[in-house]
Design brief:
Length: 134
């Protein structure tokens, strides 16, 4: 199984994501449910968006590794935030946390602002798809 990142020149160079990810045959799909910034007791770790992003991403990675995968096998991330302006204001710190966990692996991604998340204190929720080896 391999992932090939598709970034057409006509779309310009993506920053921090891939425009497309092609998964070659032979892999198993892992669909990762939305993960928020909470701990094993299901308590939100902080009201800080950076800390919540970091923990939500760590929770996504935990699901991937529990299934026998690696971060490099994550093909897509969908990031939901309750305040895109707050996210933008902390993009550098969020980017630092992302790279600390994911390195230079940038799958296909989307960021969506939503009116709210199920957990009232949650500011970030991340779901994803990974393609694991067969």
């Amino acid at each position: 199984m391999s992932l090939t990142f598709i970034n057409p020149e006509s779309l310009g160079a993506p920053r921090g994501y891939a425009n497309g990810v092609l998964a070659e045959p032979g892999g198993r799909l892992l669909f990762i449910a939305g993960q928020i910034g909470w701990d094993a007791r299901q308590q939100i770790v902080s009201d800080d968006i950076v800390a919540q992003f970091d923990r939500a991403l760590a929770n996504v990675i935990t699901v991937v590794t529990e299934a026998g995968g690696r971060v490099e096998q994550i093909a897509r991330l969908i990031i939901y935030v309750t305040d895109k302006d707050e996210y933008r204001a902390h993009m550098k710190e969020i980017g630092d946390r992302y790279r600390a966990r994911m390195g230079k692996h940038f799958p296909a991604m989307v960021l969506v602002q939503v009116a709210g998340l199920l957990e009232d204190r949650a500011k970030v929720e991340i779901e994803g798809i990974a393609v694991l080896e067969a």
